[in-house]
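Q: Convert this sequence to structure tokens.
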Amino acid sequence: MAHRVIIIGGGITGLSAAHRLLELQEDPSQLDVKLIESSDRVGGTIQTIERDGFLVEKGPDSFLSTKPWLLDLCKRIGITDRVIPSNSKNRRTYIVYRGGLHQLPEGFLMMAPSKFRPFVTSPLFSWSGKLRIALDLVLPRADPSEDESLASFVRRRLGSEALERVAQPLIGGIYTGDPENLSLRATMPRFLDMEQNYGSVIKAMWREQRSAAAKRSRKNGAADSGARYSMMVSFDRGMQTIIDEMVARIPANSLHLKNKVTGIRRLGTEWQVKTAGGMHYTADDVMIALPAYSASSMLKDYDAGLSKRLSAIPYASSAVVNFAFHREDIPHPLDGFGFVVPVIEGRDIIATTFCSVKFPDRAPDGKVLLRVFVGGAMQAHLFDMDDADICRVAREELRDLIGIVKDPMWTMVTRWPLSMPQYIVGHMQQVKQIQSLAAEHKGLSLMGNAYSGVGLPDCVRSGESAAERVMERVHQADPVLQE
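A:
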């Protein structure tokens, strides 16, 4: 009899789990996999559409190639030739400072400089701010046993200007979160390791810079060994590519769309899954690839303790506004990937991406595609505005910051309510307790970006790792496969 697996949630995590299960099965009769999704499509926040010759991302437009799991998936399904790098000529970011756009100093990584001259000459910091950042070179290490907020760490090591001018807007662009609440250990443990291993973030970055230069030298001076897999990458026809490729490899009868799960419970050796449409499914394994609050609601009548822990993970909402413009209507040179906006500037957007500069073939010749981000944990009230007001606010900011006064060709607003989990201080301990409670229920898997990484590669890893654990149990339970 086939081992029955139900996956709840059809975002990239759930799809990765389904794909990996089918990839690992010994023969088509070994598994009965059903993926149940409440909406009429799979892919979650990944959604690419074409409009008037533009390639528009309604959700994420790229992924971090330094985390290997998504690229590994691409290799296994044979689409690495469709992975494209960002534009090597314009890999710069601007930061809004006193109403204008200023380039983030070359070599400035998230919160600290790795190159001396660009940092010293940058107008983003006062001389006292620059000296305070330099104190990182001599400050003592802190006790690593205590979790600490990102804001506390940056303020302690590098000072308030580094936090307010650079770290906060860059972190806001990634997590749409408030660094005063976000856990350093859960979001950016690399910087904690830098402090502990080298006594200084700046010293660690200098050492990494020398190591990278030595590697380039050994490769005959190549500026970037394997530029395709450096920094942020995407696909030639947008992020929807990876979704479509996985769906093509999953049997159509395994996908159950427009089918909302309302509750699950375990009776004897089986899981029972109930949907809003009155359907009842039974399974040997249930894999939940949903936001923590949705998993909490689903489990509240089965395990109140686990449900309560899941509900304690907070989320932020954001809106994405895509604008199509004629290039001649934009005075700014658009010689970067976009800009981020510090909260201390008192503006109403988080960031703007110059999409058609960042990646090729996103807009027709003579046209430009921009994306503006609104909302997040620090400006949650802006997400509550209607679409017309969100567009108005975004247009006003584009007028003030890059001089656009002409009307766009078209505008598209996409809302992502409660889509970004916030890894607040204590998050890792919270996740450890959730995992401990979930482990008490044989055949229950919790997956997704709520636990151990918010990026798309992290989601792939979460889904695939859970699938591999299921397959281990399948092999252990089948005496034929053990021979």
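The first strand starts at residue 3 and ends at 8.
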